[in-house]
Write a structure and sequence with these properties.
Layout (H helix, E strand, L loop, with lengths): L5 H8 L2 E13 L2 E4 L6 E9 L1 E5 L7 E4 L2 E4 L6 E4 L10 E4 L4 E4 L3 E14 L4 H7 L4 E4 L3 H6 L1 H18 L6 H23 L6 H5 L5 H9 L7 H7 L4 H12 L3 H16 L7 H7 L5 H12 L3 H19 L1
Parallel strand pairs: 1-9
Antiparallel strand pairs: 1-10, 2-7, 3-6, 3-10, 4-5, 4-7, 6-11, 8-9
Helix pairs in contact: 4-5, 7-10, 8-9, 10-12
């Protein structure tokens, strides 16, 4: 695997497809009650104009969202977004156009312009993202602090959302494909900006944002087949073995060896989809010299053996081909 940054490596391993489902144009009072979606989905909301209040799905204080804010919900919970007035919402009607549905109401005052969609992650890789991302991620592309910290990422994200807004207005030919492709790109930009500016409590974003731990994260993603030891990773980070272990657990919520195993099993699952890839070759590709040890690790992680996984994937492909005939 060629050396690259951890986020690019993650997207090489995990297939993510974005989809813009709905554009909301509401005047107060309004309310959106949504979720949970499908198990392998991560909902998102991008505030193009106006403001909104998110009732924190985990309890706690509501979160104010303003233009330029993008919300991801990797925990895929039921969630409520409203105008904050406490007034019963006006009924909304959906207008189906060629590329998406536009939802509107007859409210007055400041109007909300909101893009709502989701990211679909191919199973079983959805588990990797869900385990290593916070249940809720908010980036503020329109916040001057974000723009000052990382002007390129913030401005790129702002421009991408503006392009999505333009594509969602008229019935452009190819608009649906464009909106979905832009949604997928938005996922990568949101994670990049979150790792650069957000104070995430745990997960990959917290690890990437930790200046001393980031080298270990990059090393594990770049060379997952290498027999990494904790002292070796500690030297990369210029800290003691005990300090690395403690800070890794605090930032990620898991140990370095657990992350390495998850990366290896994700790559192995992809390798086993290849028609001529043997179990032994897949084992070697992710650093296992013993095929038996690899089979035990794979079954423990995936719940099925490599042979059962390969058969399951083959059957899925055959069903897909049959459905399209």
């Amino acid at each position: 695997m060629a050396a690259s940054d951890w986020l690019s490596q993650l997207f090489e391993m995990v297939t993510v497809r974005g989809r813009l489902d709905l554009r909301c144009n509401y005047g107060a009072p309004w309310r959106i009650d949504q979720g949970p979606g499908q198990p392998n989905e991560i909902p998102y909301h991008a505030v193009v104009g106006g403001s909104a209040v998110l009732e924190n799905p985990a309890g706690g204080r509501p979160l104010q969202l303003t233009a330029g804010d993008i919300l991801l919900l990797p925990g895929n919970p039921r969630h409520v977004i409203h105008d904050g007035s406490g007034t019963p919402p006006l009924p909304a009607r959906n207008n189906e156009v060629r590329n998406l549905a536009i939802s509107e109401n007859a409210g007055t005052g400041e109007r909300l312009d909101l893009l709502c969609g989701h990211f679909a992650i191919a199973p079983p890789h959805d588990r990797l993202l869900r385990n290593y991302l916070p249940p809720l991620v908010v980036v503020r592309a329109g916040d001057p602090a974000s723009d000052a910290a990382r002007p390129n990422t913030a401005s790129q994200l702002t421009g991408l959302i503006a392009l999505m807004r333009c594509e969602s207005e008229p019935d452009h030919l190819g608009g649906r494909a464009m909106l979905n492709a832009l949604s997928t790109a938005m996922f990568a930009l949101v994670l990049r900006l979150a790792s650069e500016t957000a104070a995430t409590p745990t997960g990959l974003l917290a690890l990437a944002g930790h200046p001393r731990l980031a080298p270990a994260l990059a090393a594990l993603f770049n060379e997952p087949a290498r027999q990494w030891s904790l002292p070796e990773l500690a030297r990369f980070c210029n800290m003691s073995r005990a300090t690395l272990a403690r800070q890794f657990q605090q930032s990620l919520g898991r140990s370095a060896s657990e992350l390495l195993t998850d990366i290896r099993m994700t790559i192995a699952a992809n390798e086993l989809k290849k028609p001529n890839m043997s179990t032994g070759a897949a084992a070697q590709a992710v650093g296992y010299q013993s095929e038996a040890a690899f089979q035990r690790a794979f079954k423990s992680h995936m719940g099925i053996t490599p042979a059962q996984w390969r058969k399951k994937d083959t059957n899925s492909v055959q069903r897909s081909k049959t459905a399209t005939q």
